[in-house]
Structure to design on (105 residues):
């Protein structure tokens, strides 16, 4: 299934707009991962553990969006928007949400 942030698919006319689809993933922060991320912040460098969590959460949100599109009879999602929010007590959780328009091409 094609997913894109653009409003159209070049060379593939949209035959039908099916509606908005979404995918949301909320992940909790891990105490030990936080500790090591803070150490990296002090000494410099990137936090590979957080980067993996962000990547995995984004991929899961897009998969949910694709599943919802498929259930509606669509075969592509256009205009995808990705949002990241820190939520929960003291920012202990991360929410990744993806939304777009399900279409038939």
């Amino acid at each position: 299934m094609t997913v894109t942030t653009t409003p159209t698919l070049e060379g593939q006319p949209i035959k039908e707009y099916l509606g908005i689809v979404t995918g949301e993933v909320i992940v909790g922060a891990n105490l030990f991962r936080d500790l090591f991320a803070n150490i990296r912040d002090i000494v410099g460098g990137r936090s590979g553990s957080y980067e993996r969590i962000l990547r995995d959460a984004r991929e899961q949100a897009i998969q949910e969006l694709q599943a919802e599109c498929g259930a509606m009879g669509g075969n592509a999602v256009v205009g995808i928007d990705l949002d990241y929010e820190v939520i929960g007590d003291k920012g202990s959780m991360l929410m990744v949400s993806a939304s777009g328009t399900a279409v038939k091409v």
Remarks:
- Residues 2-104 form a domain with the Translation Initiation Factor IF3 fold (CATH 3.30.110.70).
- Strands lie at 2-3, 16-28, 76-87, 93-104.
- The chain has a mean pLDDT of 86.
- The first strand starts at residue 2 and ends at 3.
